[in-house]
Specification:
With 439 residues, the protein is of the alpha+beta class. The protein is built from 10 helices and 8 strands. The radius of gyration is 38 Å and the shape is elongated.
């Protein structure tokens, strides 16, 4: 009972000190002193070497080429004929060569080329929006993965530290060869807790490896390229109000802008389908030459041709284009509702994580770490019971995981809000020196 009375004030003081509200939600640990890639350099590297980004660049180039093609006239058509001409009758007969040639330039119905240009311009706009959206998403993903890699390394280090502490303690207890039921049960509890800590360390190492593999993929590196993330400093700012976020989403959201561009493009397609009811004209000079005996006949003129729209009035294409336009309107409406839901969900998550982080002191993890070390020393001296000792070790691991996971989730929510609303300033600022190592 005396040992328990000594341990309870120690545990209470540690918990109260760790949960004191902090003035700002930020990481107080200083950046790593070792040099290496900064986060900005890591993002720039991904923007330069990411393979998928090249796909969007090629898509933009294709759309620009399509715009140049849409504004061109159709190629002129040249046609000719040659044959034998024979004249007979009235006791006279003669023959000779007759030939003709014509060059015809097709001319679209007025407004048709302009509509095709407008459709091609929307293709360029869609390609640009897709390119910019991927760049923003790529930056956010690289930043989130970098912090996730750092968090996994920290979790692995803390879990390995606790597991080593339990293993060393178990080895000491085995050497003592304790007798009795209580020491035996305490040893079994220590062994089980050691196994659990080792499992957490293994899970953290796997999470770090997974984040590293994806980072290498985004950066265009080989999967086995190695790098470690230095101490990361995060500073979170309060988001704008809900109404402001919704207004920004309606104006800047990439998905809504793409759906609006598709709707405008489909409107031009409907107009083009209606314009296609009218025939294109072909106009150009013609020349024919006929020579029979001593007679020669030459004809120079202008030829005009166009199809008669008797059987095909393009009604089917018009109805199909109008149906696609109705689909585009519905898609825009659905996208607006989905965007509203996503913005509200991301804002709620971000605000919740900010409130959660506000309950932690900047050095909460260090407080729990110091308490775990203190409990280890006093347990060996017999001043702390086994329950308090194990509780402090587990609380240390839970505190490290909780703090890092909360910040990672806040970072992900901030990235989601920035992607959905196009915020000019980032809600989460990170400075993470990346130590690049040779593969």
């Amino acid at each position: 009972m005396k040992r328990l009375n000594l341990a309870l004030p120690l545990l209470t003081a540690v918990l109260v000190g760790a949960m004191t509200p902090m003035a700002k939600c930020q990481e107080a640990s200083a950046p790593s002193a070792t040099g290496g890639l900064t986060l900005d350099a890591l993002i720039a590297e991904a923007l330069e070497k990411n393979p998928e980004l090249k796909f969007y660049e090629a898509e933009l180039s294709a759309a620009q080429a399509g715009r140049r093609t849409a504004g061109l006239l159709a190629n002129p058509e040249i046609s000719g004929a040659v044959g034998q001409k024979r004249i007979s009758g009235g006791g006279l007969s003669d023959e000779g060569v007759a030939w003709s040639v014509s060059v015809m330039q097709p001319f679209e119905w007025p407004g048709r080329i302009g509509l095709r240009k407008a459709i091609a311009n929307r293709d360029i706009e869609l390609a640009e929006l897709g390119y910019e959206r991927f760049k923003v998403a790529l930056k956010a993903r690289v930043r989130t993965l970098a912090y996730g890699l750092f968090a996994a390394q920290e979790k692995s280090g803390a879990a390995s530290e606790v597991a080593d502490r339990f293993r060393a303690l178990r080895e000491v207890l085995v050497q003592r060869d304790p007798a009795g039921l209580t020491p035996l049960l305490e040893m079994r509890v220590i062994e089980a807790t050691e196994l659990n800590a080792q499992r957490k360390a293994s899970e953290a190492r796997l999470a770090a490896q997974s984040a590293l593999l994806e980072l290498n993929q985004l950066r265009g590196f080989t999967p086995d390229s190695q790098m470690s993330v230095g101490q990361a400093r995060l500073t979170f700012s309060s988001p704008p109000g809900r109404e402001m976020l919704m207004a920004l989403a309606r104006t800047n959201n990439f998905e809504l802008r793409m759906r609006a561009a598709e709707l405008a493009q489909q409107g031009f397609r409907v107009k083009l389908a209606k314009n296609d009811r009218y025939p294109a004209l072909s106009l150009g000079p013609t020349y024919s030459d006929e020579k029979v005996g001593n007679d020669r006949e030459q004809i120079i003129g202008v030829g005009v041709s166009f199809p008669l729209p008797l059987w095909n009035r393009n009604r089917g294409n018009i109805e199909a284009a109008q149906a696609r336009q109705a689909q585009a309107e519905i898609s825009l409406e659905v996208a607006e509702r989905e965007t509203q839901r996503q913005v509200l969900a991301a804002a709620l998550t971000y605000e919740t994580k900010l409130r959660e982080m506000a309950k932690w002191r900047p050095d909460s993890a260090e407080h729990f770490k110091a308490a775990a070390e203190l409990a280890d020393r006093h347990y060996r001296l017999g001043a702390v019971p086994i329950s308090t000792y194990i509780e402090l070790q587990q609380q240390y691991l839970d505190a490290v995981e909780g703090l890092l996971d909360t910040k990672r989730e806040a970072l992900e929510a901030a990235a989601q809000l920035e992607l959905l609303t196009g915020l000019a300033q980032s809600l989460a600022n990170t400075t993470a020196p990346i130590d690049k190592e040779a593969p």
